[in-house]
Specification:
3% of the residues lie in helices and 34% in strands. It has helices at 381-388, 416-421, and strands at residues 6-8, 14-17, 38-43, 56-61, 72-73, 97-99, 116-124, 129-138, 145-149, 153-160, 163-167, 170-174, 178-182, 188-191, 204-211, 235-238, 249-255, 258-264, 271-276, 281-284, 305-310, 317-324, 327-329, 346-353, 368-371, 395-397, 402-408, 413-414. The strands form six sheets. The protein has a nine-stranded antiparallel beta sheet. A six-stranded antiparallel beta sheet has the order 6-25-24-27-22-21, with no helix packed on it. A four-stranded antiparallel beta sheet has the order 2-19-4-3, with no helix packed on it. Strand 21 and strand 22 (317-324) form a beta hairpin. Pathway: Amino-acid degradation; L-phenylalanine degradation; acetoacetate and fumarate from L-phenylalanine: step 4/6. Pfam families: HgmA_C, HgmA_N. Fe cation binds at residues 341, 347, 377.
Length: 442
């Protein structure tokens, strides 16, 4: 992937040209573009959003996006993101849940779009408020198929097999231990390097968080100061790379939870240059600068937040994307695993690699757990006992591991697929806490 080039930074105004002298010069109208190109604006916020929040990009392309045949219903239509309480696709429960690896056993080959399934979510795509959590299993590249989502932004977490994202803005290589964010309305395809030998017996798998409201941003650092957590310079955006090809393409659109598509006779990736701050990006999770206690007690997991998508209530998120990387714990009189708690947020966790330090067994790579709003949870009995009696000295935890959490202010309704059809729910998960014994000596 050495031919792929990136620009660095988060939230910057980026410019990129695949052909010199494409971007309009000062005083020149973008409506009349050099090289016979079309100008097209893609907006990520309302035109009148505050300057600090305003997001948009100008794309200078060979043909405008409107140059396509009529929409039609996608032949493999299904609903992704309908969380009405009385929906037949919903099986809502406050029960603590954990799943075995969720990679699907694919018979016929499927690509990224056809391999998506929904586990949980909340809200309404039509009102642009809520969240959905999906997984994907893919055994082939998308080829001349492109996808864009009108319902929200997609945060993609590969668990196995690197992804090659072709986007309107260029290429992003996204291996495991990286994430990618592709915002609402941006067309992309998920392909694979032939060297990775993706097939029905060796499919790619990963997790997706879809946010219907707002966009991900870096969390404020507050008293932490200028340094720490995810550094803006470690985020990478693509550089312009266009295809000038007259060939048949299918473009698939997710709209109000359903899928539609249209045909066009040219590549959707014909953007010769772009400028703006509404651009997909990737991030290497191993570059996260973990902050921890060096005196006593156990800090809240908010110190592990990579990105946040805020609601209108200050300090409350549609989704906080949180990771639990390898880290040193140096503290006196501390209980090092997470404390027992009943959260006013809902917590969906996935395991990318290794062993999560708060669970002795059962939470494995490719698996997941969900502790919904106010459902009590914490370390299992074995971890509690071990941590309570461990010598208090500096310790490296999570060596060789990486887990993550989608934490949301919403109550997450689980889907019928997640509870009944996947066959992956660990029915005895509740027993993880059954051996917590009474120690009180009153």
């Amino acid at each position: 992937m050495s031919q792929i080039k990136y620009q660095r930074g988060f939230g910057n105004h980026f410019t990129s040209e695949a052909k010199p002298d494409t971007l309009p010069k000062f005083g020149h109208s973008p409506q009349k573009v050099n090289h016979g190109l079309y100008a097209e604006q893609l907006s990520g916020t309302a035109f009148t959003a505050p300057r600090a929040k305003n997001q948009r990009a100008w794309l200078y392309r060979i043909r405008p996006s409107v140059n396509h045949e009529p929409f039609r219903s996608y032949e493999q239509n299904r609903v992704l993101g309908s969380f009405h309480a009385h929906s037949p696709d919903i099986h809502a429960t406050p029960q603590q849940l954990r799943w075995d690896p969720l990679v699907e056993n694919v018979g016929a080959d499927v690509d990224f779009v056809d391999g998506m399934v929904t586990l949980a979510g909340a809200g309404d795509t039509q009102l642009k408020n809520g969240i959905a959590i999906h997984t994907y299993t893919a055994s082939k590249s998308m080829g001349r198929r492109s996808f864009y989502n009108s319902d929200g932004d997609l945060l993609i977490v590969p668990q196995r097999v690197p992804l090659l994202l072709r986007t309107e803005f260029g290429l992003l290589h996204v291996p495991p231990l990286h994430i990618a964010v592709v915002q609402r309305g941006i067309k992309f395809s998920v392909d694979f390097d032939p060297a990775d030998s993706v097939s029905a017996s060796n499919p790619a798998f990963g997790y997706i968080c879809e946010t219907f409201k707002g966009h991900f941003e870096l969390p404020d650092l507050g008293p932490i100061g200028a340094n720490g957590l995810a550094n803006p310079e470690d985020f990478e955006t693509p550089t312009a790379l266009y295809e000038d090809a007259s060939e048949d393409w299918t473009v698939i659109n997710k709209f109000m939870g359903r899928f539609f598509c249209y045909n066009q006779s040219h590549s959707p990736y014909d953007v010769v240059a772009f400028s703006g701050n509404y651009i997909p990006y990737r991030y290497d999770l191993t570059k996260f600068n973990t902050i921890g206690s060096i005196s006593y007690d156990h800090p809240d997991p908010s110190i592990f937040t990579v990105l946040t998508c805020p609601t209108d209530t200050h300090g409350t998120a549609v989704c906080d994307f949180v990771i639990f990387p390898p880290r040193w714990l140096v503290a006196d009189d501390t209980f090092r695993p997470p404390y027992f708690h009943r959260n006013c947020m809902s917590e969906f966790m996935g395991n990318i690699v290794g062993v999560y330090d708060a669970k002795a067994t059962g939470f494995v790579p490719g698996g997941a757990s969900l502790h919904n709003m106010n459902s009590a949870h914490g370390p299992d009995a074995e971890t509690f006992e071990k941590a309570s009696n461990a010598p208090l000295k500096p310790a490296k935890v999570g060596e060789g591991s990486m887990s993550f959490m989608f934490e949301s202010a919403y109550q997450l309704a689980t889907t019928k697929y997640a509870i009944e059809e996947s066959g992956k729910v660990q029915q005895d998960y509740w027993k993880a806490w059954a051996d917590l014994k009474k120690n009180f000596q009153g």
